Amino acid sequence: MGQKFERQKFVRLKFVRQNFVRMIPAIVVVVGCTMFPLWRASAQAVTLQEQLIAQYKAVKMGSDTSGYSVIEEGTLLAIQKGGLLGVPYSEKTTLTNKYEGGTVHGPSSLLVSGKKAIFGHFSQTQSQGQTTKLFAKGDKIYPTKIEVNLEKDMVTMGIVACDTCNKTDPPTYNKANVVFQFPKGSLGKASAGEVEDTIGQLLAISDDSQQSQGGDQGGQQGAQGGQDQQGGGQQAAQQPAAQPPPAEPQTIEKGQTTDQVQGSLGKPDKIVNLGAKQIWVYKDLKVTFLNGKVSDVQ
What is the pLDDT of residue 177? Predict the structure, then answer.
């Protein structure tokens, strides 16, 4: 009787062990399906933030006995819509504004009053006058930080005024935070280009340097035009010099190597290295490499 019981027990244990071994692949698949979306979401957050940081270079600020100043310039941005509220850079707190659905929402007056009560008067002395600053359309600013929160569908950018650009005297370097609020569940699916388009609705990359170059060229052309008018009929009779044939357009194709792209476009301004994935940032485009070959161009 005892031997029969032991034999039955052995058979049951063997059956359980065999079934457990058969279930292991299914368990692995279930765990993998559960963990992969979480890993992918985390990777997307890092990738998006890295691309935005590459696009919007943060300014570096410093201070000495004369006050705060810009140590290293960042990407110069131009405000496209008024309504952002800021405070001087020397203040302990920073006001947070929100941009959602194409509209700027400044911090509530109750919040501003509460921060004054906690931190004291925003200015160091009452005689300094204005304690907050409403940024106007056209004001130039630098980004100070970029943060991506996929769970809340938010991109937060810290900004500080470019006082030399805005001719602010004395300089105060007013600062603020801007939260770009995206529709629920959309930020995780959005590309970096789509996010940059939304940011550009409020904070567009300034083209002052390009305009300056264009103005110089325009001045040279104007001076040349004046000389032509003084020359009168003699220059009118001269035939214009033959124009050289236009250069062949530069072509970037999917599958090209980094050497081929560098041969066509030259060295990039910035390189974002994400392991197997690299992003080369040029002045007017971004080239994405996967395992050393072009996978996307924006």
Answer: 97
Q: Looking at residue 34, what is its pLDDT?
A: 55
- Helix, coil or strand: residue 86: strand
Identity of the amino acid at 165? C
Is there a single domain that holds both residue 161 and residue 284? no
Span 158-202, pLDDT tens digits: 999 999 999 998 899 999 999 999 999 999 999 999 999 999 999
What Rg value do the Cα atoms of the chain yield, rounded? 30
Which amino acid is present at 246? P
CB atoms within 10 A of CB 200: 13
Q: What sign has the CA pseudo-torsion 10, 15, 18, 19?
A: negative
* Phi (first) and psi of residue 241, to 5 degrees: -65, 145
> Structurally, how many domains does the chain consist of?
2
228 assigned to some structural domain: no
Residue 171: give the domain boundaries: 1-209
